[in-house]
Amino acid sequence: MMIRVCKMFRQGLRGFREYQIIENPHRRHPVFSFWDKKKQGRITFDTMDFVAESGYFPLKAIEIAQKKPSWRTDQEIQILCNTLQVIGSYRNYSHSLQLLLAKVMRFERFGRRRVIIKKGQRSSSFYFIYLGRVAVTEDEDGSSAFLDPHPLLLHKGDCFGQEVSLLSSSVRKATVVCMEETEFLVVDKEDFIANKLEQELKKNANHQFEFFRKMDLFQSWSDEKVWELVILGKKEKFSYGQLISKDFVNLSSIVFICKGSCEVLRLIDLGASPSYYKWIWQHLELVYDRPMKTRFKEPSPVERFKKFQIKSYPVQDFSALKLQHLQKAWEQQGTSFSRKINTSENSLPKTLGPKIESRRPHTIKCPMINTKHGELPKEAAVGAYMKIHTVEEGEIIGLHQILLPDSEQDRRPLILMSLGTEVIRMRKEKFCELIDSEVAEKLSKFKIEYPSDEDMCQKFLMENSWNIFRKDLVHLLVKSRQIPPFTPIRHKKKGVYNPNSLTLNLCSFNKKTKPHYPIFMAPQKCLPPLRVVQAITAPRYKIQELLPQYKNAGVLI
């Protein structure tokens, strides 16, 4: 029975990682029991004894961190190192330095309003935040953080009191205070020096120095000035697909790519593009031309003539002349006044064609929104992420507009996504203080012009049309199997992702049933969230319908 209970406990708490037993909350049925046939008695299980809250430092890791560095075994150091991988600032160090830090770290937990670092004191430790938030203030007691509506906050994964300050024993320039119950991993100066961590730090600093020394931008600088650049920089690692910056254009820092590469993406609002507006309505008309879909509401000949008369000749009356021409046009097609037809501009006389509105889609039963170019179905107001540029090793991000006046700068938000990279990030203000005339001249020639949103929208529509044509052509050329091969039965896993989640289907605008798959929304600055799509399923005629002579599969058109 204890084995079963412990198994339930491990499954519920995921192996005791990042959980801590807290006070018992109120539950409707906290206790349940069942009859044991072997013991002929009732066994009671109280769930309140196993209530836990996630996010806390694991108990086993706390026991290791409370030991002296010399008492920790290699296996315990590796366990602590694996546990600390959730801290982004710790993960930025090399593996050898991570193991050394795991050997000397100690665990601390402080409550709200506790001052961790006081302004003006000598630095003796630096901290990694595992849980909670801290505020950085200019006063000594940190009270201004609780009065400021928007204080400067540091969250889980950040670090402060940098390791470089331990080597120089510099004075603290700010106060750090806890905003809530916070857990830290602390590295003290005595342990830092005793275990020779400064040697590993010097190795990392030398790698950064060699990287800056090889760049053409800093060839004219002395070694002392390059070392100032090394001190200002902070090295960070990002895995594949990890977000580096949501908007690096308006960011207060610049990024140097040390290893790997990353992509520059742009979230474009397709509904704001005239090309997309025209493209959507062209394909919606194709939907309504089909017999199974919603039909157009054909205005009567009298209504069409009245519209023409009001727009063309608001005073004079040419009804007899116009009706005579209309009647001749219908007689050529073998129609009469009592029959509803789909007239087009080419079927009418040339004098009447351009000004007569033969048909308009009045029967779209879906909510509309107003755009700059006209009404658009609300479901068609979507966005897409477009790749603009790939940044390779040795390139710099955030300097292409640093010398331009504010009126000439392109302030569109651009996203920086990692493809597996290591970067050096530093504040733009500090970097500008080191710039001399030669570097400024090189930066004036360093310009990158990104395409406009309209060009990217047209590119997205072209790629989407090509993907549609490619799928249709494959279905036409490849003959389907008459008897599908045997496939084993596989149970579908319940997942969040669905291919239809990132596809906009124009044929489902009038459907009242809600989609059973999730829809991904992207936040926008000062605007409502925008649905994100990767493709648009547009209605089209089959190739066999357009070209009846190619009805058989396997024929190349």
Account of the 3D structure:
The protein has 557 residues and is α+β, with helices and mostly antiparallel strands. Among the domains are: 59-195, Jelly Rolls (Sandwich); 201-232, no CATH class; 236-288 and 365-477 and 502-510 and 521-541, Jelly Rolls. It has 16 helices and 23 strands. The strands form seven sheets. Strands 13, 14, 17, 18, 19, 21 and 22 form a seven-stranded mixed β-sheet that branches. It has a four-stranded antiparallel β-sheet with strand order 5-12-7-10. A four-stranded antiparallel β-sheet has the order 6-11-8-9, with no helix packed on it. Strand 2 and strand 3 (41-46) form a beta hairpin. Helix 3 crosses helix 5 (95-104). Mean pLDDT is 76; it is low at 15-27, 290-297, 313-318, 334-362 and 553-557. This is Cyclic nucleotide-binding domain-containing protein 2. Essential for male fertility. Plays an important role in spermatogenesis and regulates sperm motility by controlling the development of the flagellar bending of sperm. Keywords: cAMP, cAMP-binding, Cytoplasm, Nucleotide-binding.
